[in-house]
Amino acid sequence: DIQLTQSPSSLSASVGDRVTITCQASQEIRNYLNWYRQRPGKAPEILISDASNLETEFPSRFSGGGSGTHFTFTISGLQPEDFATYYCQHYDNVRLWTFGQGTKVEV
Amino acid sequence: EVQLVESGGGLVQPGGSLRLSCAASGFPFGNYWMTWVRQAPGKGLEWVANIKQDGIQKFYVDSVRGRFTISRDNAKNSLYLQMNSLRAEDTAVYFCARVGVNYYYDSSGYYINHWGQGTRVAVAS
Which of A7, A58, A105, B119 could be cross-linked to B6 through a Cys-Cys bond (beta carbons 3.0 to 4.6 Å apart)? Predict the structure, then answer.
């Protein structure tokens, strides 16, 4: 099975900072990778699908890139609501889905 | 507005059973793949199971295969998760969610675009 490793596991940042999270896949996964934000006590929200497709309701400060085994997620200009945990997720069609362990973005 | 409301969680002893339900509204339920995702206390997200629109094709994570059964009733706009032989490690918040699809000329991309608020399951004696 494919494993996803996110780094860092946590980071400290300030409002306005640029933050980048990486997700490394144990095997080549093309662009079959999504990114979610989970605020404390809330359900996750999809931010980026298929490595780089930003969901329409989210601002352009969120971006994703990469293909193959190495992926990045960037927030350009951290806002208070962005202090949360971020997860990457790989899908093998609808047969098997895997989440990364998460990256907590803290003040 | 898409709404997914889970119910049926609670405290159960190891080896016991529980049936989770998810009431869907605000969209044509029968047109979508649906999924269950769980989150153990203080831990990350873990995908549990997927079910196709017709309720026939189902997929599970290895750790629950043979113990959990995902099902749906399109007439009632409802998704279910029957959980048997429960273990302490099944303790988690269980989220019901809708699957979104990106269509490309040679493939499809899948993601979770709507989530319920979750229902808590605790397995302990």
Answer: B119
